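> call design_seq(struct)
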């Protein structure tokens, strides 16, 4: 029997990709997105068009609604019609740097909107709730690689603080209302149909237009880049394996990585940090153009290194990232040139 799966942020980078995958599996997907103007809405519309085309050829069903997760009343109307079995919450105000100047959007979408989604989970007694957290919750931690058992009490941006807040909010609902919930801490997702505010697209645009790129922290930055298909594999597998409680939970020495409630948190990364200079070198090679580099200091809110320990996700769903970095950048560069009509 197909499941009714509500995907929020369905016009976004990750939301569009998981919606497409689930429809192709034959599920009934209900996508919602408010086409927030944080970045080019034409890209969001193009992602929706791509899902529409895919839905025409698939056995699954696809319904899309332009609504905000902050709009409790419309959210209730839609979910009362479809009664979701599974909810995947990817809608958020994303981005670390933007949170310095636009705090309200983070408070409204990431906290109030997230709270509304939890209420929907409760009302419909969903069998599984999956939501996006972020590697940014590790904040100022210097202990590498980042592990789910590490403390995440020292965020260095409001964005990170809202993601940590989501984890504890979801935990409380998971405990009180027995909602199996999984929080996925994504590590720098990249690939075709990506986000224009992230390094691959910012750099590709400038490099192809022969404009200088800003290399922050003089290039001394490392990111655990995770290819979009690997992220989608992880979300898909988690969809069919709801969280369980740890019946051996140690109340006298509680670990952040497990719970007495059916709530689990996983890193979704590659366990393969890439330096900013290496990343630029591979992108230059795939685009066939050498970048003009301007070296600058680190930006407020940015962390120097991310590196995911992925053992827990591997144990839970046998997660193994498949796409090697150069191949991932090649796929991205190819898509970028084709989408923006550059000669291949
Ligand atoms: N891409 C990454 O590297 C990354 C890393 C860590 C965490 N995340 C998290 O993963 C999730 C998906 O990220 P993404 O990269 O696809 O970002 P994205 O910005 O492409 O997608 C988010 C979507 O949510 C929509 N949205 C924003 N506010 C909304 C609201 N109030 N109501 C309904 N829709 C709303 C936006 O229009 C957008 O289409 C986000 O929660 C993000 O914080 C992403």
């Amino acid at each position: 029997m197909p499941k009714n799966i509500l995907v929020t942020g369905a016009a976004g980078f990750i939301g569009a990709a998981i919606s497409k995958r689930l429809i192709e599996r034959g599920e009934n997907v209900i996508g919602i997105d408010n086409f927030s103007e944080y970045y080019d809405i034409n890209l969001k519309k193009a992602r929706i068009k791509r899902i529409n085309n895919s839905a025409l050829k698939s056995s699954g069903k696809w319904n899309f609604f332009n609504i905000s997760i902050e709009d409790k009343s419309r959210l209730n109307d839609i979910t009362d019609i479809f009664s979701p079995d599974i909810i995947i919450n990817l809608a958020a105000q994303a981005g670390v740097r933007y949170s310095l100047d636009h705090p309200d959007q983070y408070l409204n979408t990431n906290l109030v909107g997230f709270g509304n989604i939890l209420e929907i989970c409760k009302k419909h007694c969903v069998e599984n709730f999956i939501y996006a957290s972020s590697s940014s919750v590790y904040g100022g931690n210097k202990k590498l690689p980042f592990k789910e058992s590490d403390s995440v009490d020292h965020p260095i941006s409001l964005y990170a603080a809202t993601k940590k807040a989501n984890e504890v909010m979801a935990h409380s609902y998971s405990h009180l209302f027995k909602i199996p919930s999984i929080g996925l801490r994504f590590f720098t997702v990249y690939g075709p149909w990506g986000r224009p505010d992230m390094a691959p697209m910012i750099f590709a645009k400038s490099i192809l237009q022969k404009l200088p790129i800003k290399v922050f922290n003089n290039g001394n930055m490392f990111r655990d880049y995770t290819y979009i298909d690997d992220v989608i594999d992880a979300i898909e597998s988690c969809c069919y394996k709801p969280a369980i409680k740890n019946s051996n939970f140690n109340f006298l020495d509680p670990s952040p990585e497990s719970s007495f409630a059916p709530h689990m948190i996983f890193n979704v990364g590659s366990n393969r940090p890439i330096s900013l200079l290496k990343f630029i070198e591979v992108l230059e090679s795939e685009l066939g153009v050498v970048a003009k580099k301007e070296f600058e200091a680190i930006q407020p809110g940015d962390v120097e290194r991310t590196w995911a320990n992925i053992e827990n996700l591997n144990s839970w769903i046998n997660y193994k990232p498949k796409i090697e970095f150069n191949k991932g950048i090649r796929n991205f560069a190819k898509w970028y040139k084709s989408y923006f009509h550059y000669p291949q």
